Amino acid sequence: MHCIIKRIAVENDEFVIKLDVAGRIYPVILRRGNGQEESLIRKGTKRVQQNVIQYRQHFAKSEEDRDLLAMIAIQLAMEVVDLEEKVVALEEKNDTKPFTYKIHQLTKTLDHYLTDN
Questions:
Q1: In a 3-state reduction of DSSP, which class is residue 61?
Q2: Judging by DSSP bridges, how do beta strands 14-21 and 24-31 pair with one another?
Q3: Is the dihedral of CA 44, 74, 57, 60 positive or negative?
Q4: Partner of 72 at 20 to 30 A CA spacing, among 20, 44, 88, 99?
Q5: Residue 104 burial (CB < 10 Å; 0-12/13-18/19+)?
Q6: pTM over 0.85
Q7: What does the pLDDT look like over 4-47, one tens digit per residue?
Q8: How far apart are CA 65 and CA 67, in angstroms?
């Protein structure tokens, strides 16, 4: 299994990265100046490569590449869903709107009490 990344010019503001994963080529078009996206693609490709090697060792080459890639896709999707759920839980945990609303209500009540007396 090879995992090679090559740059090929497309237009002035774009270029193509060709990913070779499990013997198949997958072109990805990127805009110039977006080094973060290119870095993520490189890291993601490396991770897929590592997972293919791991799955091949585990299944002793009894599975086809497409089956290995499907299992990797499921594994990575599970990790993304888990991360999304953790982010939502953190956002809910850090939601200050109910507290802000309650403070606003108490402030109004206190102001009303103080202005009436």
A1: coil
A2: antiparallel
A3: negative
A4: 88
A5: exposed
A6: no
A7: 545 554 557 888 888 878 778 889 888 888 788 888 888 988 89
A8: 5
Length of the chain equals 117
Amino acid identity of residue 49, one-letter, is Q
What tokens does 40 get?
């993520």
> What tokens appear for 109 in the block?
């009540």
User: Which residue is it, tokens 């953790």?
Assistant: 86
Contact 32, 10 (CB under 8 A): no
Q: Which residue has the tokens 């799955």?
A: 55
The single-letter code of the amino acid at 76 is L
Q: What are phi and psi of 6, to 5 degrees?
A: -125, 145
